[in-house]
UniProtKB/TrEMBL annotation:
Family per similarity comment: Belongs to the thiolase-like superfamily. Beta-ketoacyl-ACP synthases family.
GO molecular function terms attached to this record: 3-oxoacyl-[acyl-carrier-protein] synthase activity
Organism taxonomic ancestry: Eukaryota, Amoebozoa, Evosea, Eumycetozoa, Dictyostelia
PANTHER family per UniProt: POLYKETIDE SYNTHASE 37, POLYKETIDE SYNTHASE 44-RELATED
Organism: Cavenderia fasciculata (Slime mold)
Annotated protein name in UniProt: Fatty acid synthase
Family matches, as SUPFAM superfamilies: Thiolase-like (SSF53901)
Length: 471
């Protein structure tokens, strides 16, 4: 693919919405919390299940990345034109996803009414139903559910907003939402949709899935994701919803959109039985091939990548194998003086499972927008099985400003439990005309002028714009 064709295929993230552990409700709030060392893990589960599940070790730890329960129970059904009978049996993940989509469209300055009936596509990563087990506990009072499997989640969203492009719910386990983003990119590039709404949802308002994961020995007893650390004993579960609004970059520029970052492309594959000891064991070789393929498809070389946002769940096997795969791709193109930086948002918010990929891309988009690398937390001592190649790979342990002498590109890993691997490459958006954006405000009433000026200043600061203010 030549450079001109690649630029035509570039995709912009123009809007973001989220609900993430620690109380993050907007992308800027999430970024500011991360800069300050956010630890979104808590024991706030008294309104979900009895403490005896933890006391009797049915669930490995009471610590998790819980959202406020009101996020799952509060839903403005009249705003979304939903009947009471439908709203009460609708998966709370879907209800919150629909709400966050509205916020993401507002963030993108897109009036939802203006794209009703359009070819807008929807892709959502989802591993579980949040409340199905609760609905079937009492057979005599069971409420009838009309669902087309998990596909109902995306389809119901498209129905609510009257989007008529492709609409799919994707379950590749923990890589679901990043695979969904790759699908959204494809629909834009192929002309199937002009806008793609991609995201993920994850909730555990009752204990069943956590009991299963404990018995599978996936969850750690310490209740934290200590990515790359020697203390790892399993991952910490987290809830969350994340949404990104995608457009072709050329159209986003034409529409004068706020562009968080540019998606150059990516790739997804599966392990098969490639250097793999069991169906749930990660394959270093397959991950490495996937990353190399993503670079090849985007026309980039390993030296072009400044930072990799790792899957980094904090498991004894997964972290070392992931870093081995990264070293196999990037090791020869980086040096101790110019290392490849790595990190994982899971150290801050835990593992949001089917939301993990979109949570990672939101973190990277905000780091690029604000030109700052965010530090990894919960790190004290390197896992002895991890080889950082004598400093050619560097874990980001302090917030770092991004250099101005190069275009910053980042790779993002997201892997599924049974072998689905995805890698997306994002790039900072550099607007060459940014210094020519002048806001000229004339107002005779000084009180009104000060109010208006403060509004503009807050907007400018939130977008990290270099804007000249003229009295």
């Amino acid at each position: 693919m030549n450079q001109q064709q690649q630029q035509q295929d570039d995709i912009a993230i123009v809007g973001i919405g989220c609900r993430l552990p620690g109380g993050s409700r907007t992308p800027q709030q999430f970024y500011e919390q991360l800069v300050n060392g956010l630890d979104g893990i808590s024991t706030d589960n008294q309104d979900r299940w009895s403490k005896s599940y933890n006391d009797q070790e049915f669930i490995a730890s009471e610590r998790a990345g819980y959202l406020d329960m009101k996020e799952w129970t509060h839903f403005d059904r009249q705003f979304f034109g939903t009947l009471a009978a439908d709203a009460c049996v609708m998966d709370p993940q879907v209800r919150l996803f629909m709400t966050v989509i509205w916020e993401a469209l507002e963030d993108a300055h897109i009036d939802p009414a203006s794209i009703r009936g359009s070819n807008t596509s929807v892709f959502v990563g989802q591993m579980f139903y949040a409340t199905d087990n609760m609905h079937i506990y009492d057979i005599p009072t069971i409420k009838p559910l009309l669902r087309a499997g998990k596909g109902d989640s995306a389809l119901r969203t498209s129905y609510c907003y009257d989007f008529r492009g492709p609409s799919l719910s994707i379950d590749t386990a923990c890589s679901s939402s990043l695979v969904g983003i790759l699908q959204g990119i494809d629909t834009i590039r192929s002309g199937q949709s002009d806008i793609s709404i991609c995201g993920g949802m994850n909730a555990f308002v009752e204990p069943t899935s956590s009991v299963h994961f404990t018995r599978l020995k996936l969850l750690g007893t310490k209740g934290k994701c200590a990515s790359f650390d020697s203390s790892v004993d399993g991952y910490c579960r987290s809830e969350g919803v994340g949404v990104v609004i995608l457009k072709r970059l050329s159209k986003a520029i034409q529409d004068n959109d706020n562009i968080y970052c540019v998606i150059k492309g990516g790739n997804c594959n599966v392990d098969g039985n490639f250097e793999k000891s069991s169906v749930t064991a990660p394959s270093r070789a397959a991950q490495q091939v996937n990353t190399s393929t993503a670079l090849q498809k985007t026309g980039l070389s390993p030296s072009d990548i400044y930072y990799v946002e790792c899957h980094g769940t904090g498991t004894p096997t997964g972290d070392p194998l992931e870093v081995q795969g990264i070293a196999g791709v990037f090791g020869d193109s980086h040096s101790k003086e110019q290392p490849l930086r790595i990190g994982s948002v899971k150290s801050n918010i835990g593992h949001t499972e089917s939301t993990a990929g979109v949570a990672s891309i939101i973190k990277c988009a905000m780091m690029l927008k604000n030109r700052t690398l965010i530090k990894n937390i919960n790190f004290k001592e390197l896992n002895p099985r991890i080889d950082l190649l004598d400093g050619r790979i560097k874990i980001v342990l302090e917030n770092e400003p991004l250099p101005d002498d190069r275009v910053i590109r980042m790779g993002i890993n997201s892997f599924g439990l049974t072998g689905s691997n995805s890698h997306v490459i994002v790039e900072e958006y550099r607007n060459n005309n940014i210094n020519n954006n002048n806001f000229i405000i004339n107002e005779n009433n000084m009180n009104i002028m000060n109010i208006v000026m403060n509004i503009y200043i807050n907007i400018i600061l939130s977008f990290n714009l270099k804007t000249k203010l003229i009295n």
